[in-house]
Design a protein that fits this description.
By secondary structure, the chain is mostly helical. The protein has two helices and no strands.
Length: about 45
């Protein structure tokens, strides 16, 4: 998957590539946070 991203650098530019990388990394954290928030009503 990283190889496909590296081929994008000349086309879209480095800043856009970094943005997509960071969004991809943050996605998992947001899903965990969402799951945690959904369980809060069950704790009370």
């Amino acid at each position: 998957m990283l190889e496909a991203w590296v081929t994008w650098v000349p086309d879209v530019g480095f800043p856009i590539l970094v943005t997509f990388y960071l969004l991809h990394r943050i996605e998992n954290k947001l899903e965990e946070l969402n799951d945690t928030i959904k369980t809060i009503p069950q704790l009370h």
